[in-house]
Amino acid sequence: MMKKMALLSIIMVISMGVAGCNNSAVPNDNNQTTNPGTTNSQSSNETGAIAIEEAKDIALNDAKLTRDNVTFIKAEKELDNGVEKYDIEFYSGNTEYNYEINAANGKIMEYDHDIKDFDIKNNQNSNNTAKITLEEAKNIAIKHANLLGEKVTFTKAERDLEDGVEVYELEFLYGNTKYDYEINATDGKIIGYTH
């Protein structure tokens, strides 16, 4: 008797789901004939989630780039503190872009871009806001850690844009100890560090 009730309940739930899908399909058909480009985002927004291709487009639009001039290196869905997000990474020229996009609503949660193989010293007259050089940032970190510069080995030293603020991300070794520093590129203040 219990099995029959469970089976009947399952059939009713499936029937209601199918009926619900059929009712929502009629208005979407009208949208598809007028503007097929927006139908996918409208239908996915109705379900409260976006597709990975939409997440890529959101990142590209924010970076003011098109698919023609980028190479995607990562596009995957992740769960971060109970929030589903897309982690999107791509290159355009010598710049790497990283985006985290909320999978439910398409909002950009976090982004940054890194310029690879870029010499900051040779580009001091460009339109950047950095007031301190990479070497100055390294010296700030070494001094803060109370280390001797000649015994430090840098494993990462790059300028990044985080939440609209230019920072230097530094990683270095001193003996067997690893140090990580994030330094504001405008004023040289230490934003964060670990060792």
From TrEMBL:
InterPro entries: PepSY
Amino-acid biosynthesis is among the record's keywords: no
Secretion signal span: 1-24
Domain PepSY: 50-110, 131-193
Electron transport in keyword set: no
Key words, A-Z: Signal
Any Pfam family matching the protein: PepSY
Name the record gives this protein: Peptidase
